[in-house]
Design brief:
The protein is of the alpha/beta class. 45% of the residues lie in helices and 16% in strands. The strands form two sheets. A seven-stranded parallel beta sheet has the order 3-2-1-4-5-6-7.
């Protein structure tokens, strides 16, 4: 049985967040093309205060979307926990009325935190329920030190993940291993199970010549550039990143630069520069909106993905890897990250590095150096990996199976 009627899409991200811009909206465009024009799509976002849409922005988006029979509902963001549950309870009736008024027949949730509210509404309204980007979130929060195993937040979300898994009519995971995880952890043998890694717009992210003006502005001319697009701390390593960068500098000296595209504060970065004794001009930090990321990634010679290698990361997607690959960049990645660590090792398009083991640094740098000597041949090989494992054609096939 295929879901019908109008679709309510749940996220726990702000509209301006890259997770909506690059990881939600492209998929909605695909679904929009698959389903009939008379079926409406409503997107629900959770707006963090610092990047929240204002009323005029929401009005303009909805004016544009009206032509596609789509609508945006922007709600304030709250962290998952007891306060969120209380706030959610008050919001439940409002969303219930929207579902009834808009004749919603399917709720499509991205990730299990958003899926928690979606599950409750599906249960109360009898609507079909789909979980997209299905990954373990509760255990991941414990493993990276954000929550305690005995915390109320963990207990609530883990319980709701179990219930979501049992109720969902379709689960779209980011790795194949999530099927066994669902059986082992949640006790559900999922029948309608699909695998869709984080797909990438291969037209926006592609190997291209370095921007000469930008390269000159950032003092990257004739440099070996390591690029990292992401955060420091949380689910990512921090000290280990700068320890590795220090070793890169020791190897390449002034020929080396580290370009970090992040929202981390300069104070935080300067503290790591001081701790490791790096010259301050070696590290160049910029906060860049996502649509400009390809221009900056093109300046890199190789890239980092320093995700903390906790057990649940085997089942989670890593968006940045697909973007790096699409640009033709070799990647130095932690072990056991999604299917990506295995792909990088098997295809010889980067290095799998335990960032906590400094004895591996020198060997890793030597391997990177060998890859860089391959130049354009290596770039096109890496690009072909992105085309195979990160194409939107993967998503189109899955959504067609579910929704057509």
């Amino acid at each position: 049985m295929k879901p019908g009627g109008n679709i309510l899409v749940f996220t726990q991200w702000s509209f301006k967040d890259a997770l909506v811009q690059t990881y939600t909206l492209p998929y909605l465009d695909i679904i929009r093309k698959i389903i009939s024009p008379d079926r409406k799509i409503i997107l629900l976002t959770a707006e963090q205060q610092q990047i929240a849409l204002n009323k005029d922005e929401i009005r303009n988006i909805n004016k544009e979307w009206a032509e596609k029979n789509m609508r945006l509902i922007a709600q304030p963001y709250k962290r998952f926990g007891f306060k969120k549950i209380i706030a959610a309870a008050g919001n439940l009736f409002r969303l219930y009325r929207i579902i009834k008024r808009e004749k919603i027949k399917t709720i499509h949730a991205f990730c299990t935190p958003a899926g928690s509210m979606a599950y409750l509404l599906s249960k109360f309204t009898g609507t079909d329920f789909v979980i997209d980007s299905y990954e373990p979130h509760a255990e991941s929060m414990v493993e990276n030190g954000t929550w305690k195993k005995n915390s109320l937040a963990f207990k609530i979300l883990f319980s709701l993940e179990k219930k979501q898994t049992a109720r969902a009519m379709a689960l779209i995971a980011t790795t194949d291993g999530m099927k066994q995880y669902s059986l082992d952890k949640y006790g559900t043998d999922v029948k309608q199970f699909y695998v869709k890694p984080a797909c990438v717009d291969l037209e926006k992210f592609k190997p291209e010549a370095k921007d000469i003006l930008l390269m000159k502005d950032l003092d990257l001319e004739n440099k070996i550039v390591c690029v990292y697009a992401g955060k420091l701390g949380g689910i990512y390593l921090k000290q280990e990143v700068f320890d590795f960068i220090r070793t890169c500098y020791d190897h390449w000296t002034d020929r080396f630069r580290f370009l970090i595209l992040t929202n981390a504060t300069q104070i935080e970065i300067d503290a790591e520069i001081k701790r490791t004794g790096l010259p301050s001009n070696i590290v160049i930090s910029r906060y860049v909106y996502h649509h400009k990321i390809p221009r900056y990634l093109a300046l890199g010679d190789f890239a980092l993905n320093p995700v903390k290698p906790v057990p649940t990361k085997r089942y989670c997607t890593s968006i940045k890897d697909g973007e790096y690959w699409a640009m033709g960049l070799p990647v130095v990645i932690s072990p056991g990250i999604s299917d990506d660590s295995g792909i990088i090792e098997k295809e010889n398009i980067g290095v799998v590095l335990d960032y906590s083991d400094k004895q591996q640094y020198a060997g890793t740098i030597n391997k990177v150096e060998l890859l860089l000597k391959s130049k354009d041949g290596m770039k096109m090989k890496i690009r072909s990996v992105a085309e195979k494992f990160r194409s939107f054609a993967i998503a189109e096939k899955i959504y067609t199976t579910i929704y057509s």
